[in-house]
Amino acid sequence: MIPSSENQVPAVALEQVSKLYGRFAALRMLSGEFAAGRLYLILGENGAGKSTLLRVIAGLIHPSHGKLAILDSGDLKTVRPQLGYMAHASMLYDELSGRENLAYFAALYGIRVQATGDRAMRTVGLDPELDRRVGQYSQGMRQRLSLARAILNDPRILLLDEPFSNVDIGSARDMTRLLGSMRDSGKTIFLVTHQPALLEGVADESVYMSAGRIVERVQHRASSATLQAAEAQP
Amino acid sequence: MSVLSVLRITLAKDLRMEWRSKDAINSMLFFALLVVVIFSFSFDLTADESRQIAGGLIWVALLFAAVVALNQTWARELRNQVLDAYRVSPAPAESLFLAKTIGNFLFVAILELLMTPLFIVFYNLRSIGPVYQLILASVLGNWALVVNGTFFGAMSIRTRSREVLLPLILFPISIPALLAMVGATTSTLTGEGSAHLSLVFLAVYDVVFTLLGLFLFETVLQAE
User: Cα separation of A162 and A22, whole Å?
Assistant: First the structure.
């Protein structure tokens, strides 16, 4: 568990964040704070701005207006080591094996220990010894390896875009359990999905988006800050 | 993590992938081979005439062939959005730029090595000037092509018609370097005039464009 003082700092804070593509607004004036150590489900129809929001937090897209702070820092460059991002696409090299892929991406974070990549593969239920190029992996295996790549650097904030697409139900449940335990260990997880039922009982909050706006936030489990405040009451 | 360590692992990864797929080398080789064979059958040249035009022919063939490799090198990063994984990591942008440039330099150098005997046979070439000048012109000329090609390849990577855009940007900016490469090669092959000035110009061109690339690459990489 991360210390409670760290929990008080919002993992992500948005202030009037908009993203415009010409006259089209992918995100419209988003504001809000997201406490650390929680698992957020980002829900909404196609084109609601869910993936754009994740890409903005990941620093892959720069907001057209507004301010974004991650772990209390406005300089996204400094928090890159604390982020893990998994996109729709696998973000893996088809010509390399799973182990070679992870060894390369781990090295980008200064991790030169092979065991780190192997451990990440085992965590998502893949065999590091599998001597097969990623191009020959099934879609579900790619998805698992992609998750392994995202958690390689032990990030404090994990951004997952449709991690369960093309994954069988058993594997999806395994991944859900893993995400639950990561949240319990203090990680903040933002997860875009069209299968919210899979995370029933695991997710802390659902964030509903529509036409680039956050339209509703529904808490499933109270945050530690709320609990602490409740305990402090006479 | 240091620029050099990320450079080393990125270069090793690129070389391993090229060794397995041979995409860039094969397409470059095939293209350059076509140019050499078609031109040798199109003209009936004496040895002296060959020496006069070979410089231009060699470098134009290499320039066109290099574009194929330059497009390949970035297309790989675009597939499965792998480049985004680099962009979200704390790895320095300069390492990626240098690794790609060195990788492309090695691919074009291999092409030069494979094509040299073919040029000699098909065009009946024999250098009258010192051979070391040819080697120097190849190294400096190769770097001039790939350093700009790698940079502008990254710039055009997210455009819809990137295969067309890269030569459109690269060729005009490479003209001064191309003139110097052809000048140095022709004067060495014919033994007429000095290649010295062209070689110095190429060296300065290489330094300037390498520094510019290093300075601007972060902006290019993080552009949407």
Answer: 27
Task: Read off φ and ψ for residue A203, nearest 5 degrees.
Answer: -70, 145
Return the residue of B nearest to A97 by Cα.
Answer: B17
Residue A3 has pLDDT above 70, yes or no: no
Domains observed in chain A: 4-93+155-232 (3.40.50.300)
Q: Nearest 5°: phi and psi at A190?
A: -110, 125
Closest residue to B84, CB basis, from A87, A93, A96: A87
The residue length of chain B stands at 224
Name every chain B residue with its beta carbon within 8 A of the beta carbon of A153.
89
Q: Are B205 and B144 in contact (CB under 8 A)?
A: yes
- Could you read off the pLDDT of A137-183 as tens digits, one per residue? 988 899 999 999 999 999 999 999 999 888 888 888 889 999 999 99
The residues that bridge with A208 in the sheet, in sequence order, are A43, A216
Range of the domain at B142: 3-222
Identity of the residue numbered A43: L
CB < 8 Å to B20, chain A: 95
Tell me whether residues A80 and B90 touch, CB distance under 8 A: yes
Q: How far is CA A187 from the centre of its chain?
A: 9
Q: Which of B22, B78, B25 is nearest to A93 (CA)?
A: B78
Q: Check CB contact of B160 with chain A, cutoff 8 Å.
A: no
